[in-house]
């Protein structure tokens, strides 16, 4: 207890200290980083030649310089702040490394065959150099499209049931739990399940486009349900009540108000789910196989897809091997471009459909 | 068009919880009936039973009778959707549809119900409703702009226009001015005065001056204690309630002597 008497006008003791204190210059973090890089580079590069080791040591050195300099000059609270800021920044850098590295490697290796032939030719009657992935591009588009057509209505309606009709019922809870479990199943399991199911019906070793599409749909449904559910929950109850109060039946309220209001979020979720399954390889390996020619019929015959095409071109490149490997890289690059395009589409869709507030 | 509503022996429940007990009152046509009372006493709950919005909440139910023009709204064969087409409602917070323009918001009652209507008739309906809500002159040049772009007071008048566009017989208002500034409040009070020539209006309000200004009859709801059901203490002409109420509780509440 302090001895201050009630009603005393004295200021607390801490106010005697000035409010300003010693601060490191604004450029200090960058200076510290530059110093760390220069020192680590000068010591390690000539002796070991390892860039990775240099970067790691530079990062540690940066932490030490920051901590010590700030601790001495600014006190422990600021030192902690700067130390954690530096740690977070380094973590961000580490997270970026694989991403940039993958994109860079794929672009670097894939650009050689990013030519017209790659988009206009299939591998039909092609051995060795040349050829293209037209059949695989079409396959990926067809299979993904069918998967979307199957999974979006099911996923959307499941989410509508969960949010609008089954709220808090036991069935809804069970569905939510199973959907969460489904989100976690390995993709190969979906492929094997579909393959086994079709083997029971039509005999073994059948491989057709629709099988792959169903396997992808199984993987897509939980994602669509989850994202749609979250979006529907965001629709304010006021809007539902406003529609009911106008004498609008529940189903029309759901379709024209609730779904319409959350359309932008749902479309974004669906597009991201499509992008996610477009790159699946494992389930397509066991359900679609691979073919060299373009096959537009999902109900008959094997179908090539970009991931599977890349996989086989890499593992069984043929002669000369470089031609096959180059095709594999380019197929991977095209897949990345496709997924990136889908993500951009998702952004455009969400902007177009989002509720407007402008005056 | 305006209708008389006769409420008898109405008990309102949320699940097993009796929220409002034993309401008996008559709501006069072409008049404004105000419902006043402390928070949680069941005014809004009672209001929502008049267009069967109460049962939208899971577990909510009602016992008793609400008779409008000889028809019991809670009869087993009555479709709540058609009740709501005759009894419009304006909510406490303005809630225009965010994806719709001003025009579409007013036309929502028609469009959402997929009623066929010629463009010319719909234009006319929208204009008439917006004029009825005293909003036409302010928005006539920007009907295609989003409804959310309006100010709070304008949004609330937009919601009133939306509610009267379905041409209801009764209009329920749940504290329509509580989120508005005094000028917007005045605009809406003037509007209520005009609307009562055509509609039966029931308004819930916390503002006793407002009740005294706009209403012809006033009902006072009270709560006998925490966790106990609310009940209608008395209902009478507004002038009598505010000058010479028959119940002590009413007088205490109105003069600020409560608790």
Automatic annotation (TrEMBL), chain A:
<keyword id="KW-0472">Membrane</keyword>
<feature type="transmembrane region" description="Helical">
    <location>
        <begin position="175"/>
        <end position="202"/>
    </location>
</feature>
<keyword id="KW-0813">Transport</keyword>
<feature type="domain" description="ABC transmembrane type-1">
    <location>
        <begin position="137"/>
        <end position="346"/>
    </location>
</feature>
<feature type="transmembrane region" description="Helical">
    <location>
        <begin position="137"/>
        <end position="163"/>
    </location>
</feature>
<comment type="function">
    <text>Part of the binding-protein-dependent transport system for phosphate; probably responsible for the translocation of the substrate across the membrane.</text>
</comment>
<keyword id="KW-0812">Transmembrane</keyword>
<feature type="transmembrane region" description="Helical">
    <location>
        <begin position="328"/>
        <end position="349"/>
    </location>
</feature>
<feature type="transmembrane region" description="Helical">
    <location>
        <begin position="208"/>
        <end position="225"/>
    </location>
</feature>
<dbReference type="Pfam" id="PF00528">
    <property type="entry name" value="BPD_transp_1"/>
</dbReference>
<feature type="transmembrane region" description="Helical">
    <location>
        <begin position="84"/>
        <end position="107"/>
    </location>
</feature>
<comment type="similarity">
    <text>Belongs to the binding-protein-dependent transport system permease family. CysTW subfamily.</text>
</comment>
<keyword id="KW-1003">Cell membrane</keyword>
<keyword id="KW-0592">Phosphate transport</keyword>
<dbReference type="InterPro" id="IPR005672">
    <property type="entry name" value="Phosphate_PstA"/>
</dbReference>
<feature type="transmembrane region" description="Helical">
    <location>
        <begin position="51"/>
        <end position="72"/>
    </location>
</feature>
<protein>
    <recommendedName>
        <fullName>Phosphate transport system permease protein PstA</fullName>
    </recommendedName>
</protein>
<feature type="transmembrane region" description="Helical">
    <location>
        <begin position="257"/>
        <end position="278"/>
    </location>
</feature>
<dbReference type="InterPro" id="IPR035906">
    <property type="entry name" value="MetI-like_sf"/>
</dbReference>
<keyword id="KW-1133">Transmembrane helix</keyword>
<dbReference type="InterPro" id="IPR000515">
    <property type="entry name" value="MetI-like"/>
</dbReference>
<feature type="transmembrane region" description="Helical">
    <location>
        <begin position="27"/>
        <end position="45"/>
    </location>
</feature>
UniProtKB/TrEMBL annotation, chain B:
<dbReference type="InterPro" id="IPR003439">
    <property type="entry name" value="ABC_transporter-like_ATP-bd"/>
</dbReference>
<dbReference type="GO" id="GO:0005524">
    <property type="term" value="F:ATP binding"/>
</dbReference>
<dbReference type="InterPro" id="IPR027417">
    <property type="entry name" value="P-loop_NTPase"/>
</dbReference>
<feature type="domain" description="ABC transporter">
    <location>
        <begin position="5"/>
        <end position="248"/>
    </location>
</feature>
<dbReference type="InterPro" id="IPR005670">
    <property type="entry name" value="PstB-like"/>
</dbReference>
<protein>
    <submittedName>
        <fullName>Phosphate ABC transporter ATP-binding protein PstB</fullName>
    </submittedName>
</protein>
<keyword id="KW-0067">ATP-binding</keyword>
<keyword id="KW-1278">Translocase</keyword>
<dbReference type="InterPro" id="IPR003593">
    <property type="entry name" value="AAA+_ATPase"/>
</dbReference>
<dbReference type="Pfam" id="PF00005">
    <property type="entry name" value="ABC_tran"/>
</dbReference>
<dbReference type="InterPro" id="IPR017871">
    <property type="entry name" value="ABC_transporter-like_CS"/>
</dbReference>
<keyword id="KW-0547">Nucleotide-binding</keyword>
<keyword id="KW-0813">Transport</keyword>
